[in-house]
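Problem: given the chain below (298 residues), write out its structure.
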Amino acid sequence: MNSVRSFGQGYFLLMLSMSLVGSYVALSKQLLPSFPPFALAWVRFIIAAIFMVPWLLEWRGRWRSVSRLDALVLFGMSFFGNFLFTMFMLFGVAHTSVAAAGIIMSLLPATIAVLSVVILRERLTVPIGLALLLAIVGVAALSVQKDSVGSSLLGNSLMVGALLCEALYVIGAKYLTDGFSPKQIAVSMNTTGLILTTPLGLYQSTQVDWGSVSFGAWALLVFYAVSASQIAPWLWFRGLKSIPASRAGVMTVALPLTAAALGIYLFGETWTVWHTFAFVCALFGVVLVTVTGQKKNG
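Solution.
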């Protein structure tokens, strides 16, 4: 019974994490008029670092005990899942619609499942395969919308880059959960992201009219920083401790669904029958994976 409860809690944390990611993918489009992409990313990491000082103190005396392989994986996760994902995502949403970004990110479950089989040697079961098929069908349904097709090729290509970076992030996360706490991984990723963005962030910060940035923009930026660098990673790594990476990948459907919902609410994009169909496909996929997972671990 406890294992079933732990499994269900793990899925809930994963869904909540990806919902937060989806929210800041959409909301970041509102911040770009006030902050250039590199400056936005740099300030985000600074704000998150301030909030994560208590977590950083937990690392005292432990840095030297990290093996070379673990240090390499930590850096790789931050480079791909934090730095590059943020850059691809910010430049991508600046050149395409939120709807198009959501459609591309809907391919995350399939991408993660394939990489889980190839890299982690996880078994691709029938329920997971059916859930992936439902995700792909949902993406195909959304792609027939005229609003989504008319997006920039550059922006869509950058979002594909963000997709691949996020998939590698999920795969690397499963490896790290065996030896590090969620707080330790989040601190390491944010610190590395801050170091990597500082040179270009400093350069672009000269282009920001800091006096004209509204209170609402600052409040949104604080939410973006804390949710992206602190809360969402903590939730994801916490949930991932009890869920295989291939099954966890299906939970990423919450990302594009949240992004699409906010795109409709904030940017006036239209909710169509194809959105409903894609939502139903995603919902069935999540139920399929979670129910079979609980039976296996019950």
